[in-house]
Amino acid sequence: MQQESPESESTATPQEGPSEKITRRSHRKSRAGCKQCKTRRIKCDEEKPSCANCKRRNVRCNYATSKPPGDSVQANVLSGSEDISLSEIELTYHWTTTTCQSLSMWPSGAAGWRSLMEDVAFHHQHVLHLMFALTALQLSQCRPNRREAYVAKADYHYEKALSKVTPDLAAIDSNNCDAIFLSVQLICFVNWARGPEPGEFLAFGEHGRSDWLVMFRGIRTTLTSYGRHNFAKTLEPAKRSKSRPLPPMEEPCDYMEQLSELRAHVTATCLPSEKDDNAQAIDILQECYFNRYNGVDSELHVSFAWLYRLSDAFLERLQAHDAIALVIYAHFVVLMHEMERFWYLKGWTHHVMSGIFAALTTEHIAWIRWPMARVGWIAP
């Protein structure tokens, strides 16, 4: 997303004369300012939970923490004998008993996520930090009276994870490929769990580029760069296991007819060079609908395969706010709506639909009335 230019700070006006030096007016330096103000190199008033600059720009205000809050005790859980605090013991407990259960519709899926802490996370710190970040965000929702402290813990672990996984991405091999694959997935979960952000609509942003989409597409990049068969601790066990499908669900009224009409409209009105790409996006979406409502998918998250399988050209048009791409994306949001039973996706459906509505002109609004009705979102 685009950032505003840094605000200039006042300086003392130099006196005229060849021998006079230019001096700055002395002022108290902001050493404990928020991360956003430091990034933009402007003065922060250090108000908490949100400084005046962040309130004015309507963005999340985060303050750096040298270590997560909690009573410090020595422990050697992390690889390399890294010290952790009592709060990480709490996060480990809640990951194994609660948070991992929310990543799957089935007990077997939750058991798989739980075992990955021992099999992968204890040997790769970035995975463990992301598990802690996601767990802290769940606790922030369950314990609102301690929300600020848990969000601070989540931010701390998320930043630590990014600093550790970045070097591994440039040197992926058989020793770290499973850990990198897990971290890329968990980064997407953490960004969902942070909740809807102004201007961020998952597959596009208010100013075009979507940070979440870049991370999500990183899953495909990770798999293709090293080969799916090499992921022995993640993909291969999942392939061998027999996951039972979800029970058939009540399908949205007339969805087949709606998607067929949408396909006819799109192929008749889009540019010839984009026709095949747009038609393929609708065909994949129709397949996702069928799999969801006819007991084929084993997890609700599988529907995000739609974004995974789309061409780069289509996603570029979507991020450029192309009207047809936005209309097709609105029909995907119906599948997202079912996933709001998971705590980390709550609120995203209406937020994304509002972003699509705001980006479309009046002539295209009629084509998203059906998905708007399906998810229960009413325009302001």
TrEMBL record:
Zn(2)-C6 fungal-type domain: residues covered: 33-63
Comp. bias intervals (Basic residues): 24-33
InterPro entries membership: Fun_TF (IPR021858), Zn2-C6_fun-type_DNA-bd_sf (IPR036864), Zn2-C6_fungal_TF (IPR052400), Zn2Cys6_DnaBD (IPR001138)
SMART domains for this protein: GAL4
Biased composition (Polar residues): 1-16
Keyword field: Nucleus
Database matches in SUPFAM superfamilies: Zn2/Cys6 DNA-binding domain (SSF57701)
Keyword Nucleus among UniProt keywords: yes
Pfam families linked: Fungal_trans_2, Zn_clus
Nucleus found in the keyword field: yes
Any GO MF annotation of the entry: DNA-binding transcription factor activity, RNA polymerase II-specific
Disordered: region residues: 1-33
UniProt xrefs under PANTHER family: STEROL REGULATORY ELEMENT-BINDING PROTEIN ECM22, ZN(2)-C6 FUNGAL-TYPE DOMAIN-CONTAINING PROTEIN-RELATED
Name of the protein in its database record: Zn(2)-C6 fungal-type domain-containing protein
Organism this protein belongs to: Paraphoma chrysanthemicola
